[in-house]
Amino acid sequence: MDNFQSTYATYADFCKAFENEMDRLYLLVFLLTANHKLAERCFLRVLEEIPSDNTVLKPCVSTWVRRRLIECALVSVFEQPFRPDIRREGWFENTNAGLYIDAVAQLDDLERFVLVLAVLEGHSSQECSLLLGCDLRTVSGAKARALEKLGTTTRGVLESSECLRASA
């Protein structure tokens, strides 16, 4: 029985998961919220929620953290009205990757969530539908619009950055 209990995650296991995946986790939450303040609040909220009662198995720690961050971002964006000081922000990195991140952040909320969850996180349309509380048709439409907008936006970004490099 003692061996079985040792398969549960400790607080240190959660801290290690945050530490090892900090950049990826923050990028995930920023892409979902499109706001640095909201992303930071989600991080702090999930850190405060780390279970201390041996309810999460060690191999599931990373999944638990990602899922809780996604759920927190959903609540932050869709269930709490935006205050005037909360707006979409940029990534603050003038690289091609930063420009792509900014393009995703500028998508409408539903489109951004579906794109991040389905394309970047690998969730099925059914899972996105359940997470977002909408039907499959809504998810499919949002995904198609997001990909179209992202293609248009990033095409312009790439063309302008290539022109800038060519003129330098």
Short description, anyone?
This protein is mainly alpha-helical and 168 residues long. The protein is 71% helix and 0% strand.
Defining traits:
mainly alpha; Rna Polymerase Sigma Factor, Chain: A; Arc Repressor Mutant, subunit A; 9 helices
Overview of this protein structure:
By secondary structure, this protein is mainly alpha-helical. It has two domains: 1-87, Rna Polymerase Sigma Factor, Chain: A; 90-168, Winged helix-like DNA-binding domain superfamily/Winged helix DNA-binding domain (Arc Repressor Mutant, subunit A, Orthogonal Bundle), CATH 1.10.10.10. 71% of the residues lie in helices and 0% in strands. The chain is built from nine helices and no strands. It has helices at residues 2-5, 11-20, 22-33, 36-48, 61-79, 96-105, 109-120, 125-132, 136-167. Helix 6 runs antiparallel to helix 9 and helix 8 crosses helix 9. The longest helix is centred in the C-terminal third of the chain and has 32 residues, at 136-167. The mean pLDDT is 85.
| Global structural class | mainly alpha
Oligomer: single chain
What CATH architecture of the largest domain do you see?
Orthogonal Bundle
CATH topology of the largest domain: Rna Polymerase Sigma Factor, Chain: A
Briefly, what CATH class of the largest domain?
Answer: Mainly Alpha
Total number of strands = 0
- Count of the domains: 2
In whole angstroms, the N-to-C terminal distance is 67 Å
Q: Could you estimate the helical fraction of the residues in percent?
A: over 70%
- Report on the biggest sheet: none
The ordered string of helix (H) and strand (E) elements is: HHHHHHHHH
Strand content: under 5%
Unreliable runs:
none
Mean pLDDT: 85
Calculate Rg over CA atoms: 18 Å
Number of helices: 9
Query: What is the overall shape?
Result: globular
